[in-house]
Amino acid sequence: MTEVSSLTGRLLVATPALADPNFDRAVVLLLDHDEEGSLGVVLNRPTPVGVGDILAPWAALAGEPGVVFQGGPVSLDSALGVAVIPGGLAGADDVPTMESGVRPGPGGTTAAGPRPDDTRHGGASGEEPLGWRRVHGAIGLVDLETPPELLATVLGSLRIFAGYAGWGPGQLEDELTDGAWYVVESEPGDVSSPDPEHLWRAVLRRQRNELAMVATYPDDPSLN
């Protein structure tokens, strides 16, 4: 099998040519990418449903707008939590920590969890707050079965997603070859953008190459 260079933590930005309505002008944060496939969440699909309507204990930690986002067309009845911890890994005093979590599984309602004997207190290098697993930099997955108060003092922002976007082995690579996606670096603020409807243009506009020009592409090319 051809070795796959991991794109975990990077953004997939839909090209104007991408015809799938599920991903029209989508910005996808890749949470997992390897030879077995890829998993991510769409960052710019807010729904009218408030976080408090389905996950009331987490509502106070959710960033604005405080609604559930449609993370993708797969497993819409499942929930994923993605959160940023300022400064990367937080080893705050009296915050339970763990060294590693688990890969998010299709259809699950939780996104991370400690392995046996991993739980401890303190702030040693490499440890992660209990209930949060780093994906890339300061961005990580939240175990939504963790009591929110354990993370309340360290989370900088939280986004709740219903469903996710998934690709089988080699499927995403084929789409990249076909020119369906631009691959760019993510920033922690992408997860908690208060203006998600304009995230597609904002991400493209900050690129220091020809992609910045794509941000001006009209919503309806026939009107250009």
From TrEMBL:
Pfam families: DUF179. One of its GO terms (cellular component) is cytosol. Residues 94-129 are annotated as: Disordered. It comes from the Bacteria. SUPFAM superfamilies: VC0467-like. Belongs to the UPF0301 (AlgH) family. Signal peptide: none annotated. This is UPF0301 protein FNZ23_17370.
